[in-house]
Amino acid sequence: MTNRPWYAVAVNPRRETAVAHALSEIGIVSAVPRSRSRREFPLFPGYVFATFGAATQPLVLSTPGVTSIAGGAPPMPLPDDQIASIRAIMAASLPAMPHPYPGFGQLVRIERGSLAGVRGVLVRQIDSLLVVVSIGLIRRSAAVEIDHDHIAALQGAAHAPMASLYLAN
Q1: Are 110 and 125 spatial neighbours (Cβ–Cβ below 8 Å)?
Q2: Could you list the residue range(s) of the whole structural domain that residue 51 is in?
Q3: pTM listed for this prediction
Q4: What is the rounded distance in angstroms from the CA atom of residue 144 to the CA atom of residue 147?
Q5: Beta bridge partners of 69
Q6: How far apart are CA 84 and CA 86, in angstroms?
């Protein structure tokens, strides 16, 4: 792991893997989080996450397939907790899928299991609960299905009292 900040590097459509490979060839650590399903695809289409210093930024921008670095000039690094959550999901090898950016909702923390400590927004589907982890700068999200007994509403969040009832079902 590196102490340098992580950035969201915007890339041409369906070029995530090729850009990540090109970045690794010039010594830049990068990642393309992928879904865990029959057919793997990027969880954050159009983006590669990379860690680099200011001196390396021109190399990143001149890499074939790179269109920009999220956040403008100078680019904004991604918050460490968001990167840590995505890394935890990938390390857990749980089925993950892209999800629409929630914008709002009940914040929860996963209390048990391989994702303990990960925070996200709770989304209830017909027969399951999802925890949606977002990268706010690019307004993209990924979701994992989770058992209701593994999560807790974050106290102090606007809807925490209602979430306790919601999670009891």
Answers
A1: no
A2: 6-69
A3: 0.86
A4: 10
A5: 9
A6: 6
